[in-house]
Amino acid sequence: MAVNSSAAEPHQARGGNLLHGFLMRAAVLTIVIAIFMRFGNVNIGAIGQGLGYALAGVTVFLTFRVLGFVDLTVDGAFPIGGAVCAVLIFGGVRAEIAILAAFGAGALTGLATALIDIVFKIEGLLASIIVITGAYTVTLHIMGGKSNVPLLGKETLISRHSKDFRNWLVDQFGDQMRRQSTNLLEIMIFGALVIVVLVILYWFLRTEIGLAIRATGKNDQMVRATGLNHNMMIIIGLMVANGMAGLAGSMVVQQFGFADVSLGFGLIIRGLAAVIIGEVLLRPRTVGQLLIAAAAGMLVFDISRAWIFSALDLPTTDIQLVSALVVLAALGTPRLYDQWRSYQQRRN
User: For residue 336, with 0-12 CB atoms within 10 Å meaning exposed, 13-18 middle and 19 or more buried, which class applies?
Assistant: First the structure.
C-alpha cells in the first residue's frame, strides 16, 4: 500500500501543477480581456455573442480533435437548430423545449453525415459537404419556405426575464445601466447554459462510451481490435458534436431575435479559429481544460472582432472581411511563431 501511495503522489502533484498552471493562464487571460475591453471601447455585448457561439467551437473541437473526423456539418447543423428553435418558439412552445429540440435537430444532421460516410464509404469531408448543401433546403422547409423567421414579441429565454431584470438593475445601480441590461442578462443566462453543457459533456467523455469515442479518434484500429463498434462510435460522436451546434444555433437565434437560413455561413472556420486560439492562449492538457479552451477561444474571437470594428469605425457590411482577418491571424500566428523559432535555432 505504501508503494502504491508513493507512486500516486508524483502523478497527483503533476495533475495539480497542470490545473494550477491552467487556472493561472485563465485568470491572466480574463484580466487582459477586461483591460482590453475597458480601454478598447468594446461593448460587453461581445461577451454575450461569444457565449452564444461558444458551443459551436466545442463542436469543432469534438469532431476534429476528439473524433479525428474532418467534418463541416456544423455549417448546416447550426442554422437547422436555430430554425427549429425559432419555429417552435413562434408557435408558442417554451424556449427550454425548443432548445432541446434544436439539439436533436443538430444531432440528426450529424447522423446524416455519419451514415453517408459509413454506408456509402464516402470520405467525411465530402459527406459533410453533401449534408450542408442539403441542409440549406431543409432549413428553408423548416421555416415554411421563408428565409427569415422573426421572434419579435415572442417569449424567449432573454425576453422572459428582460423587463424584471432591467427594472432591478436600474433600481440597484441607476438609470445608466438600462442600456446594458439585455447584454448582462445574455451573459448570465448563456454563461450558465454553457457551463451546464460543458459539465455534462465532460462527464459524458469520461463514461465508457465517451472513452471509446476518444479512443476512436486516437487509434481506430485498436478500437476494432478490442471488439468495439467503430462505426457506432463515429455515429454517436458526430451526433453529440453537431447537437452542440444545433444548441448553439438556438441560443444565437434567441439572442438575435430571428432565425435566418444563412446563419451558419462560414462557422466551421470560426470554430477552428476558436479551438486554436484557446489552445494557444490557455495551453490545455486535460479533456476538461480542452473543452473550456474551445469555448474561451470563441469568446476571444468575438471580442477581438468587436475591437477591430470599434477601433477602425467600420460599417457592419465589413463583418465577413473582419472575421476572415481574425481567423487568418488566429491560424497564421502560431505557424509564423514556429517558423521564427526554427529560424532562431538554425542560427544558433
Answer: exposed
Which residue, 58, 53, 56, 108, is CA-closest to 80?
Answer: 108
The CATH code for residues 22-347 is 1.10.3470
Q: Report which DSSP code applies to 180.
A: G
Q: Which residues of 15-50 are buried (b: 16+ CB within 10 A; e: fewer)?
A: eeeeeeebeebbeebeeebeeebeeeebbebbbbbb
Per DSSP, helices labelled H in 144-207 are 159-173, 181-205
Q: Which residues of 234-249 are buried (b: 16+ CB within 10 A; e: fewer)?
A: bbbbbbbbbbbbbbbb
Query: Under 8 Å CB-to-CB from 101, ≥6 apart: which residues?
Result: 84, 85, 88, 93
Q: Mean pLDDT, to the nearest integer, of 102-123?
A: 97
Q: What is the DSSP letter of 122?
A: -
Kindly state the cell numbers that stand for 227: 471488439
Instruction: State the pLDDT confidence band at 2, using cuts at 50, 70 and 90.
Output: very low
Amino acid symbol at 124? G
Distance CA 230, CA 208 (A): 14
CA-CA distance, 167 to 156, in Å (whole number)? 18
For residues 326 and 112, what is the distance between their CA atoms, to the nearest angstrom?
A: 31
What mean pLDDT do residues 292-303 have?
95
What are the grid coordinates assigned to 247, written together? 444548441
* 37/40 Cα distance (integer angstroms): 5
For the CA atoms of 68, 71, 75, 81, what is the dihedral angle to 10 degrees? -70
Cell of 317: 457590411
| Amino acid in position 348 | N
Tell me the pLDDT tens digit for each residue of 132-167.
Answer: 999 999 999 999 999 999 999 999 999 999 999 999
